[in-house]
Amino acid sequence: MAEPRPSTDQESAPLLAGAGHDHDDDDEPQRKAFLGIYDPSRPLTALERVLAVTALLLLLVSGTFIGLFAGTEHTLKKERKHHDNSPDHPTVTATTTEVTTTTVPVPGPTGGVPSKGVCTTPDCVLLSASILKGMNASVDPCDNFYQFALGGWLDSVTIPADRALAGSFYEVADNNKRIIKKIIEAIPEEEGDSLDAENENLQKLRRMYDSCMDVNTLNTVGLEPFLPLSDFVLESFGKFNLNPMPGDDAFVGGDDVTGAYTDDYVLPAELVKAAAEVEYYRNAKNRGSFGPAPTEHVATESLVDLKTPEISKERRDKITKTLAFLHSRGVDSLVQFAIEGDAGGEDPQVQSLWLYQSFGGLPSKEYYEEAPIVDLYQSVVAGILQNIAETSDKDSFIKRDIVVDVAQELAEELAADVADGWPWPWPGDDKPQPGQSLEERMRKLAAQVVQFERKVVKAGTDFEFLMNPHYAYNPYSFDEVNDALGFLDLPTYLSTFAPRISPSNITVTYPPYLKAITKLVANVPDHVLSGYFVAKLALSYAPALGPEVGVRSEKRRLEEVLQGIKKGTEENRQDVCLRWVDNTVGYIAGREFVREAFSPEAKVDGEKIITDIVSAFHKKLPSIKWMDAESAAAAQKKAEAILPKVGYPLYPDTTKPESIKNWYSRLSIDRSDFFGNVLRSELLDNSRTWLTLGRQRNRDSWEMLPQTVNAYYSPPDGEIVFPAGILQPPFYHLSWPAYLRYGAFGAVAAHELTHAFDNSGAQYDEKGRLRDWWTNQTVAAFEERAQCVAKQYSKFYVLDPEGNKVFVNGNLTNGEDIADSGLAQAYAAWRAVTPDDKPFSLPGLDFTPEQLFFLSFARVWAQIARPATAVARVRTDPHSPPYWRAIGTLRNLPAFHEAFACKPGSGMNPLKKDQCELW
Asked: In which residue ranges is the amino acid composition biased (Low complexity) (predicted)?
């Protein structure tokens, strides 16, 4: 089951915004009004006198406002005891500083001629003040542009106590959440069957949020809503709680790790890195940044030749029924089926059936080799199984266990006097044995369940290969796959989801897994497999239970360690519930968000920015020296086919309440049944997905909600998508001048576009088909330049808590660093659409439009991190630290050097031999 979506700070997704106009023609009446004021050749009209007074007042207010910020900046610099202006000074934690106000002039730029027209609207004044407040004008922009653009912000911001980072992405996400929360809380409660579509949607939104926020009810009902799920598994497959528990010879568990975990345990950096890599590759397929095709590939072999152990029909039927139940509810067990486009076929938009390996409850396979983590995980699974056993059948479990425990105590007391132990009155297998209390039985079973899951995880291939389409595209006939999966009746299984569809082929992402998993299932005892099924079910649905419910508490205990959360830290319930709102009725919330924070004009403008960038890139392709003519022509063809999407999806149609109502018509939302709401939503989502099997994908559908602060490029769909949630300041605002919009949002758009033309994107042609369209010569030339970027970024670093340098892994961040260089295309697009205009300036910012373009770009990467977090990220994140994303990109960009007249050899304009260029 998909848990509520976490917020993201990945650059591959920012943007969205408000209303207003940004066309230079719209400013002509304003310029004429100012000319009239200062033209002595004729008397002023009454209207002009009013405008003149208003304008002068605005100028006075803006001047005072700017002076305040400038004075603050000046005093702040005087009070600062120490400041490192080195171009290689990475950002770390900042603290809040109280300052005194003084009025001083603001230093101007180091080069260029500023434009004359000045915008004095309140929006422009506030924007200008924000930019000024964030700057440190005492730093030479050619030495350290990040400090120049963001030094003031770095000195004034504080990381919230419950977070490890602060920055622009978090500010946008928090603001979006505030907007949605305000919308929800303003919805009046209404009942009845006569509500129109708009109000019916709003009531579902309000009821979903309220059901999640009612923690008292969730804690009171406890595990009760979950029990029908676990009871179905137990009735269909069999019990996991056997008394006595069979001996170890039935199924050998792992090494004894009891006691390996202690409360002072800290995850090793290697495990954190492994988990981050899994997450990266898990999303790489859709993001189109999985790297070059692997040199080695699993040989496509006949699955009929993969002889598997025989499994009885009775057991096969039980497993099939149980798996269909679990998978329909989003619970990953033994195998996973997915509905995805047939990238290797002639039409990637046709949705086909894919088979994936199963994944474990720990982040990566490396975690199963870490004794303290395995010990912790086993104790969590034991706690979950015990909690379910105690609650699901009180008559047969709890009463009996009380008798067993008392009898055991008596037996221990009399053992010294009775040579053969206590003369138990109960014969047969139900006779309690020493060490067979419920707690001990579940501890023993959990060790076997985790050991089985460890073997399942090890049977699969690495994520790096699994998510690479060249490696994972292995189509087989339906009958071959059915024969190879000895424990699953595939026709019966599929009838649960799509009874009228019988696919002729199934794409198996890792063929050897089928034989391995069938062998494991054949050899595992039923009670262990039953415990595995129930544990997977509980771990999936634990987040939908009250925070004080035992199953939820157990999973939270595991999360705290895996995520580095301080023990006992209480979740922010509002954030939790807003994520659940996204996960269940997200399009309703998305529609309301768009109505509040987006506009049709912003959508049109965002699309224009993207098409302008695509056009600039298309025009540049033939002149790229390392790309031969054949590859350049293919790239142009692909650029022409790119489909930009901005703001919100049209399937369901976010602009129409009737479309949203129909989308959720089968979803019942009960204010007093949060768990049921989550379960019904999961069933509906899975039903929708399976209904697409064998059909063309609806091109109006998205993979993200409108309120999401993110963006993505989809290789098989040839789409670059930018939700309204990321089109917000500091990424975008419709009223901003073009140089700010193209510098911030344009940089994000160009980043996603560039992914379509790197060594990953080169594996998909203009129709989204898995086809190589680069020549070998172009591939070699690209790799040579990519290594230049990797070596350059490997010299960048962050500081650990002791002040030591921890360097960036330039190979890990290579794909994203190259995508950042797409800023050059955003700059070219801006210059192409505004070649002769005279854009207005902002008050108090005596900079050229070119310089403000780059200031806007740098503001996107405002971020500070606690040193330990910065180190963890530099070891695991495929994106470079934000500081270096700004610095590294601009050091390689001649347009920036020219805009600020940076001399060769300066911090921001290294010698040519130390620069890299691809696009």
From this structure: 90-105
Q: 473: closest CA among 350, 359, 340, 349?
A: 340
Confidence class of residue 53 from pLDDT cuts 50, 70 and 90? very low
Peptide bond into 244 cis (omega under 30): yes
| Over residues 169-193, mean pLDDT | 92
Indicate whether 751 and 621 sit together in one domain. yes
CA torsion sign for 761, 762, 765, 769 is: negative
Q: Which of 145, 162, 179 is the last residue of a domain?
A: 162
pLDDT in the model for residue 721: 95
The token pair at 545 is: 């239970």
Give the angle subtended at the CA of 436 by the CAs of 425 and 552, to the nearest 5°: 135
Residue 150 has pLDDT above 80, yes or no: yes
What CA–CA distance (Å, rounded) separates 846 from 333? 62
Helices (H) and strands (E) in the chain, counts: 33, 11
Contacts of 564-572 spanning 24+ positions with Cβ under 8 A: 564/267, 564/872, 567/263, 569/162, 571/547, 572/162
Task: State how far the Cα of 104 lies from the Cα of 66, in Å rounded to an integer.
Answer: 10
What's CA 310's distance to the chain center, in Å?
A: 42
Residue after which a domain boundary falls, among 568, 587, 609: 568
Claim to verify: residue 158 and residue 63 sit in the same structural domain: yes
Look at strands 719-723 and 643-647 and give their pairing.
Answer: parallel
CATH number of the domain at 513, please.
Answer: 1.10.1380.10
Residues in Cβ contact with 15 at an 8 Å cutoff, skipping those fewer than 6 apart: 606, 711, 722, 723, 725, 726, 727, 728, 731, 732, 745, 748, 749
Please indicate, yes or no, whether residues 607 and 559 belong to a single structural domain of this protein: no
What are the tens digits of pLDDT across the range 631-651? Answer: 999 999 999 999 999 999 999
Instruction: Give this prediction's pTM.
Output: 0.83
Q: What is the pLDDT of residues 821-871, one digit of tens each?
A: 999 999 999 999 876 566 778 899 989 999 999 999 999 999 999 998 898
pLDDT at 57 over 70: no
pLDDT tens per residue across span 775-796? 999 999 999 999 999 999 999 9
Please report, for residues 551, 692, 800, 875, the alpha-carbon distance to residue 274 in angstroms, rounded to integers and kept in the order given: 27, 34, 20, 10
250-299 tens-digit pLDDT: 444 456 888 999 999 988 888 888 888 888 777 776 666 665 556 555 54
The 475-477 sheet, strands edge to edge: 335-341, 351-357, 505-508, 475-477
Q: Tokens 């960048």 correspond to what residue?
A: 796
Q: What is the DSSP string of 256-306?
A: --TT---TT----HHHHHHHHHHHHHHHHHHHT-S-SPPS-------GGGS
State the DSSP H helix or E strand holding residue 339, giving kind and residue range, or none if neither.
strand 335-341
Shared-domain flag, residues 554 and 632: no
User: What is the H or E stretch that residue 553 is in?
Assistant: helix 550-562
DSSP state of 333: B
Residues 408 and 512 reside in one and the same domain: yes
CA separation for the pair 119, 122 (Å, rounded): 9
Same domain, 482 and 616: no
The number of folded domains in the chain is 3
Q: What is the pLDDT of residues 887-908, one digit of tens each?
A: 999 999 999 999 999 999 999 9
